[in-house]
Amino acid sequence: MVSMHALAWKIYWVVSFVLQLVSVTKGEDIFLEWHLALDLTIQPVNVDQPVITINGLFPGPLINSTTNDNININVFNDMDEPLLLTWNGIQQRLNSWQDGVSGTNCPILPGSNWTYAFQMKDQIGSFFYFPSIKFQKAGGGFGPIRVNNRIVISVPFPKPEAEFDLLVGDWIEQSYKAARSDWSIAPAMILMNGKGSFIDPFAKSYESFTVSPGKIYRFRISNVGTGWSFNFRIQNHKMLLVETEGSYTSQIELDSLDVHVGQSYSVFVAADQDVADYYIVASPKLFEMTNETSQAAVGVLHYDTSTTLAQGPLPIGPDPSDIEFSVNQARSIRWEPSVGAARPNPQGSFNVSNVTLSQTFILEGSLAQIGGGPVYTVNNVSYIAPDTPLKLADQYINGSGVYQLDVFSVNSSLQSPVTTGTFVVTGQHKGWLELVFENDLISMDSWHLDGFGFFVVGFGEGKWMPESRFTYNLQDPVVRSTVQVYPKRWTAVYVFLDNPGMWNLRSQHLKHWYYGQELYIRVHNADPNPVKERQPPSNILLCGQFFKVLFFFFF
Ligand SMILES: *[C@@H]1O[C@H](CO)[C@@H](O)[C@H](O)[C@H]1NC(C)=O
Ligand SMILES: *[C@@H]1O[C@H](CO)[C@@H](O)[C@H](O)[C@H]1NC(C)=O
Ligand SMILES: *[C@@H]1O[C@H](CO)[C@@H](O)[C@H](O)[C@H]1NC(C)=O
Ligand SMILES: *[C@@H]1O[C@H](CO)[C@@H](O)[C@H](O)[C@H]1NC(C)=O
Ligand SMILES: *[C@@H]1O[C@H](CO)[C@@H](O)[C@H](O)[C@H]1NC(C)=O
Ligand SMILES: *[C@@H]1O[C@H](CO)[C@@H](O)[C@H](O)[C@H]1NC(C)=O
Ligand SMILES: *[C@@H]1O[C@H](CO)[C@@H](O)[C@H](O)[C@H]1NC(C)=O
Ligand SMILES: *[C@@H]1O[C@H](CO)[C@@H](O)[C@H](O)[C@H]1NC(C)=O
Questions:
Q1: Are residues 261 and 363 in the same domain?
Q2: What SUPFAM superfamilies has UniProt attached to this entry (predicted)?
């Protein structure tokens, strides 16, 4: 009897342990309902312009999740034109059906709704979402995403007193609809969480964070702007860099941090100064600004018992035109291989110190003229988004009539004529791809790949050459999903193509992207077993060619 009793307990114990494991890897289910609408009353810069709100908020609500949580967001489009939301840096494992870009999804039409369902699979970190089509990002619709560590994994820093999300980005004073059709419209200033500058007497509001003396805070900073890099700093305070877009960095102390379009970072800040209020500044960087002070975003770090306003001149950052400062800082941002992140084993157990490359793409971002108008290009091709999402075409009609596979030249040294097209390139499943981004422009650029984190192995001047590989850092390159490319320079990354799907590779600069600087990488797993790419979701939207062929599929 006794042994039976013990056995029963053992079984109970094992079963509950297994259930616990299952629940840990499955994550929690999170259900959200969002209504996107145009608001004419917010007027962040005191002019009439439509701002895209979510449930009345600008910026939109936080998605506060934990590794492996299942996110369900029922998105209602209460705007006057089609909508898609994309989840910058969320990898959508085996599931590009939820990526929310024109190549993967039909848009959600005005007056209708669609439910995104995806998992924060094996990820941690700071990210953001934004509307991906029709230049809508310039009107708002963005918001923060946190993927917290599971409690079973120890994080490489003490728990902060509080965490703050800072969505910072340049802002255009005109409506986003005017901006998308008028090449000359440009941003005027930077907003911090949708608010104006503390030192601007005409600003309706400014951002302020309240802290207690002696406590430590985590700031999750993202550049949600359309085209400006910025330098971020807090008067009299140091920042400890800990994370970038889902990987833990070696911890370095900084006076200021350059954040480029589409990037996210976490820094820790100790409230270790005299009780007072201090400026938080994000000023334009590597850009011909007309007035750094009036174009900067200025918020406030407020000590809870302080009665003095932030005062004195704004803290001075590095020379805004100093490229070397920025490049050196970029090179100093390294991965911390010894700590766990989404999984308990160290981040560095999967690394690039000894990999064999299976493909190299050398991609030059540039500006060209087509039909008398300016366009942005990749290797002289300006991408045209078809009405039919590439992913749908791939699934049902082998891409035919929608895109051309592997016609695009992935080597910028091979001269190609300037043209437009819908080109898709094959990425070898489970191969290592070397991506070299060249910037032919005289301004900053930044590149992003959906579906993956990539290892940032090198930054260099001029044209990339095979010998440039000798300068790579293969020991502890940081892993992220958006990387900056300096004017007339190159950046190189490695990516392991273990995630089948149709993946967008784009400039994060909204104007570059809108005018054609993107392409898609198709990663196909020919072996249907054992790990399959997900089938289309049951609520899939149809559009383009699929209105015509609908008949044949369903009758
Ligand atoms: C986010 O979720 C974590 C874990 O469930 C929780 O501890 C934290 O308080 C939440 N934060 C916010 C702002 O909701
Ligand atoms: C639209 O919202 C309703 C609930 O209001 C929900 O039942 C339905 O599944 C949603 N439609 C889609 C396509 O997600
Ligand atoms: C820049 O803007 C600030 C704040 O609006 C103003 O005080 C300053 O005079 C301006 N500087 C120049 C050179 O225009
Ligand atoms: C990279 O992985 C190899 C095993 O493949 C390991 O020996 C090495 O220590 C790792 N490097 C780092 C920096 O963790
Ligand atoms: C590096 O890779 C080569 C070939 O893939 C292999 O033979 C060698 O053992 C690897 N070295 C280490 C240190 O992992
Ligand atoms: C699908 O298209 C590719 C080229 O894009 C072609 O090589 C292949 O044969 C096609 N497959 C079928 C089944 O038509
Ligand atoms: C790119 O093309 C040039 C010129 O033909 C060639 O020398 C080089 O090897 C190619 N690079 C790659 C990575 O294929
Ligand atoms: C793009 O076209 C221009 C002008 O025809 C040419 O000078 C340049 O070399 C081309 N670049 C590429 C990457 O093909």
A1: no
A2: Cupredoxins
Q: Give the residue whose CA is nearest to atom 14 of ligand 7.
A: 411
In sequence order, which residues have a C-beta less than 8 Å from that of residue 63 and are 6 or more positions away?
A: 30, 32, 71, 73, 129, 143, 144, 145, 146
Q: Is the CB of 354 under 6 A from ligand 5?
A: yes
Q: Is 223 within a domain?
A: yes
Sequence-ordered list of residues with C-beta below 8 angstroms from that of 4, at least 6 positions apart, any chain: none
Q: Where are the beta strands (DSSP E) in 422-517?
A: 423-427, 432-439, 445-449, 454-461, 479-480, 482-485, 489-496, 501-507
Shared domain check, 415 and 282: no
Using a 6 Å cutoff on CB, does residue 210 contact ligand 1? no
509 inside domain: yes
Q: How far apart are CA 296 and CA 395, in angstroms?
A: 46
* Helix, coil or strand: residue 510: helix
Question: Ligand 7 centroid to 406 CA: how many Å?
Answer: 16
Task: Assess if residue 548 is contained within a domain.
Answer: no
> In tens digits, what is the pLDDT along the chain, a chain of 555 residues?
445 566 655 655 555 555 455 545 679 999 999 999 999 999 999 999 999 999 999 999 999 999 999 999 999 999 999 999 999 999 999 999 999 999 999 999 999 999 999 999 999 999 999 999 999 999 999 999 999 999 989 899 999 999 999 999 999 999 999 999 999 999 999 999 999 999 999 999 999 999 999 999 999 999 999 999 999 999 999 999 999 999 999 999 999 999 999 999 999 999 999 999 999 999 999 877 778 888 999 999 999 999 999 999 999 999 999 999 999 999 999 999 999 999 989 999 999 999 999 999 999 999 999 999 999 999 999 999 999 999 999 999 999 999 999 999 999 999 999 999 999 999 999 999 999 999 999 999 999 999 999 999 999 999 999 999 999 999 999 999 999 999 999 999 999 999 999 999 999 999 999 999 999 999 999 887 656 899 999 999 999 999 865 545 553
What CA–CA distance (Å, rounded) separates 504 from 447?
Answer: 10
* Strands 423-427, 518-523: pairing kind: parallel
Compute, in angstroms, the gap from residue 522 CA to the centroid of ligand 4: 29
305 and 373 assigned to the same domain: no
Query: Can you give the residue range of the structural domain that contains 431?
Result: 351-538
* One domain for residues 107 and 63: yes
Proximal ligand: closest to the CA of 399: 6
C-beta of 474 in contact with ligand 6 (< 6 A): no
Answer yes or no: is 370 within a domain. Answer: yes
Do 462 and 502 belong to one domain? Answer: yes
**Ligand 1: distance of its center to the CA of 132 in Å?**
27
325 and 356, same structural domain? no
Do residues 79 and 165 both lie within one domain?
yes
Please give the tally of structural domains in the chain. Answer: 2
Distance CA 117, CA 97 (A): 9
CATH of the domain at 474: 2.60.40.420
